[in-house]
Amino acid sequence: SGSLDINAIKAKYELERVKRVRSDAVAKPIIPKGAYSHFADDVITPLTPREPITVKTKVLIIGAGFAGIITAVKLKKDHGIDDFVMVDGAGGFGGVWYWNQYPGAACDVESYTYFPFLEETGYIPKERFSYGPEIREHMKRIAIQWDLEKHAIFHTKVTSMHWDESTNCWCVRTNRFDNFTAQFVVLATGSFHEPQIPGISGMREFERPHFHSSRWDYRVTGGGPDDWNLTKLADKTVGVIGTGASASQLVPQLARNVKKLYVFQRTPSSITFRKNFKTAENPNIDFRSLSQRTGWQQARMEEFANILQGTVLDRDNDGLEGLEVLTARSLYKQAEQAGVSINPEDIPELIGLADLVHMEKLRTLIDDVVQDKETAEKLKPWYSFMCKRPVFHNEYLYAFNRLNVELVDTDGKSVSHLTRKGVVVNNQEYEVDLLVYSTGFDFDSNTSFHRRTGIDLIGSQGKTPDETWEGYGGPLTLFGIHFHGFPNLFNIGPSQSGVLANWTHTSYIAGEHISDVIARVLQGGDESFQAMEPTEAAAKEWAKQSEEGSDMKLMFSRTCPPGYYNKDGRPEEVPPSAGPYPKGIMEWKKVMKEWREEGGFQGMEK
Prior knowledge:
Layout: H1 6-21, E1 29-30, E2 54-62, H2 66-79, E3 84-87, H3 96-99, H4 111-114, H5 118-121, H6 132-145, E4 152-153, E5 158-164, E6 169-174, E7 179-187, E8 197-198, E9 210-212, H7 218-221, E10 237-241, H8 245-255, E11 260-265, E12 271-272, H9 287-290, H10 296-308, H11 328-338, H12 347-369, H13 373-378, E13 391-392, H14 396-399, E14 405-409, E15 417-418, E16 422-425, E17 428-431, E18 434-437, H15 449-453, E19 456-458, H16 465-468, E20 477-478, E21 482-483, E22 489-491, H17 503-522, E23 533-534, H18 536-546, H19 550-557, H20 585-598, E24 604-605
Parallel strand pairs: 2-3, 2-7, 3-4, 5-19, 7-22, 9-18, 10-11, 10-18, 11-14, 12-13
Antiparallel strand pairs: 1-8, 5-6, 6-7, 15-16, 16-17, 20-21, 23-24
């Protein structure tokens, strides 16, 4: 680190951050509603007209992505509960994978830990990092094995819910005018289901095809969800706005299919290469013998969690490089192995130094790969590693060596506006035949409950969640799952929960907890409880635990350029208790397991 000019790098970080927070320079993202609602339309499955239905059920699961599917399977497989209904606005199972069928869509969490129920289905993913089609195929496999189709109602969005004290049930309405009555409701609505598009002028005047990456229209591009030969684009000029995770995956696919590609960039992502292997050729694991061992997947999930939290070091160095090195725990572990002692007061500085070194490596990688020096400079990320979601892709940087690909850097601003046929940046018009908004999603914990779910929710006190929590300045929950003021309602989301890169691990733990609690009530284990919610005291105590370290997090977020991690440059608007449970996913699991084993639903009131 002797060759690093730390002060110069930090000054550069601050310069780039300030550039991007000037409010006049950056268009605010918008959710596709009203005049823009067609950007959220389902282009995959046609809507089938139907009459409104009336359903009475024990459990209503809102969401049919991994969180909803896992909860449904846990209810059925572990507890024999078959009286449940799943509803989802999509046209089928899949959640984020139903919507994101763009070319190149892939998961950068290892498939052996990300795909749920591998032991139970007997399936082993084809490679270490899987693509969308295989993930969707596995979701169908799970749905068939546990006969979930008969429980599911698709193309249906819950619009309102209110708690009926007299029946101890939720009364639920949908956009198809259905009436559901349910004793329990599980919110498995996900964090990335609501696309956001850039709020730039001229969108309604733009005459060429344009869509969000999560609503990819193969009728325009040619090819299909399982066939990424985009035959209709061979003589076309295409623009992509955005350079995050989705863009990094679809840019290489577009580059090899189009005549000309413009990539419009506000802030570059940090790009790390990932070590992918065909499963049969993975040098670190023999899956034939591993898959014979009972409990292998759970053990691997937990090992992955411990690596990312720094409680163990990555033995094979085949994890997602860089994530595990930037934690206090891993510094202690490395020091211990080297026989060196660390002063706890030096930890923040050491992590900061490890971060600077890591980011310098990533910037050097760009110099090594990208041939045009000016383009290479523009692709360099000048911020700390976890300011933005890290991107893992082997082909994205190489795409900029192609003669038909041009990076249009907006120098931290948004694109200026659209004309009838193009995109304007720095007073220059770039004419395009197709424009793709790869601009991400309205992220979960940073928004109000209603905006996040689209549900008008009224609880036992006759109030919405935002009203119930107003005086407190953040969610009031127990474990991030049970809401104070909302009996028999369970939430699977990042706020106040154990969260890591592997979302299915969070969903597994939450699904297990939720199904256990529901089974205990329905099967009379804690018979006197037919309806329950956390007491205000218990929820406040959990919120207090969830706030731990939020001051440090806020200080860090203020050093970052705008992005969904810091509410687009307004981190002080994120309530201190809205972040994940700070002690990590394994401690979260342990606390809930002990709570269930203790019995009596401590901290709950009827």
